[in-house]
Design a protein that fits this description.
Elements: H1 2-9, E1 22-29, H2 32-43, H3 46-49, E2 52-59, H4 62-70, E3 76-81, H5 82-90, E4 95-103, E5 107-111, E6 126-129, H6 135-148, E7 156-159, H7 162-171, E8 176-179, H8 181-187, E9 193-198, H9 199-207, E10 214-221, H10 222-227, H11 229-248, H12 250-261, H13 265-273, H14 275-278, E11 279-282, H15 285-300, H16 316-327
Parallel strand pairs: 1-2, 1-3, 6-7, 6-8
Antiparallel strand pairs: 3-10, 4-10, 4-11, 5-8, 5-9
Helix pairs in contact: 2-12, 6-9, 8-13, 11-16, 12-13
């Protein structure tokens, strides 16, 4: 830690020349929501612009990102799943969370003609959601219990994919469902759905902090962080700039998604135009509060042993990166 803090003091805003570029091995899941920010970082050469020389590793499953970090096959995970990343802290694995970057962006939706007006009206109802053990499943329970006083006995979560959940609602087999903003945009008005609450807004109300629930976080190997603290800061600077760029350039994001993920035009455009719903690059006090509260929820659901404390975070890198970006 002392080495990291000493290194931070020596970092300037200047970009290193290519000859002095620092090597960094970076990994991300080449599917799902985390793929987009990884692809934007890679194709836009945001790391190179900050004086880094990245070696990219992509994996086929989200859990493999953290495994690569544990085995020290990579130095930094662009987006590690929140649950496995928090487990690293509970299990004393030498890796730390350095950035909040993937929002649990979902909405409580009901059929247009439903009498349900708020999530509090879901008592006694069937709610389409993700499987038990998932982040979203846990968030639904926490929100309905914490904000509306409902117990797990007061509602039933029905796990399935979003397309199937839409069919269930149209048949009247479930009363409501949890759906991502990108999915709602893809379905369009013909789905005849109405939003009665959003997970980010309900979560902020629950924790009394202005930070959304998180599906993904940036994670770094401790040895790498201590040996090359300036490289970690530059990585975060690159993430901040790539996230801002993605919000401002939806057409270019859509082009990347079509080329690299074989998305069709409509899906790529919908994904790109809802970029700011899913991606942030932040690690302020509210983000850490959000993660610690999520850890409490996961532990209560028996998703991992041990206790997560603030020791799992290394916020000093983000603080320096934020300062650098603010001066540019």
């Amino acid at each position: 830690m002392k080495l990291a803090l000493l290194g931070l003091a020596l970092i300037g805003a200047a970009v290193s020349s290519p000859a002095n570029a620092q090597d960094v091995r970076v990994g991300y899941w080449a599917s799902g929501a985390s793929a987009a920010i990884g692809l934007v970082l890679e194709e836009g050469k945001f790391l190179e612009a900050e004086g880094l020389k990245p070696t990219w590793t992509t994996v086929t499953k989200l859990a493999e990102v953290n495994r690569a970090l544990i085995s020290r096959s990579i130095d930094i995970a662009v987006v590690g799943g929140t649950l496995p990343s928090l487990r690293l802290g509970a299990e004393n694995v030498p890796a730390k969370i350095i950035l909040a970057n993937l929002v649990a962006d979902a909405n409580f939706v009901v059929p247009e003609q439903s009498p349900i007006k708020t999530p509090g009206d879901l008592k006694g109802k069937k709610i389409g959601s993700t499987p038990p053990g998932s982040t979203m499943h846990a968030l639904v329970s926490a929100i309905l219990q914490g904000n509306y006083g409902l117990s797990d006995r007061d509602f039933q979560q029905i796990p399935s994919g979003e397309a199937q959940l839409l069919t269930f609602m149209q048949r009247g087999e479930i009363d409501a469902a949890l759906m991502r903003t990108i999915t709602l945009r893809t379905f369009g008005s013909q789905a005849k759905l109405r939003t009665v609450g959003t997970v980010p807004d309900e979560w902020k109300k629950l924790i009394k902090a202005d930070s959304p629930p998180l599906l993904g976080v940036g994670v770094v190997d401790i040895a790498f962080a201590n040996n090359k603290p300036d490289a970690v800061v530059k990585h975060i600077v690159a993430n901040i700039k790539a996230t801002q760029w993605g919000a401002k350039n939806p057409a270019k994001v859509a082009d990347i998604l079509k080329r690299r993920l074989q998305m069709n035009d409509a899906d790529a455009q919908a994904f790109a135009e809802t970029w700011s719903n899913s991606y942030i690059a932040s690690f302020d006090e509210g983000d850490m509060t959000s993660l610690l509260r999520m850890a409490e929820i996961f532990k209560a659901a028996d998703n991992f042993p041990g206790v997560v404390t603030r020791d799992v975070f290394m916020p000093q890198f983000y603080a320096k990166a934020k300062e650098i970006v603010g001066k540019q």
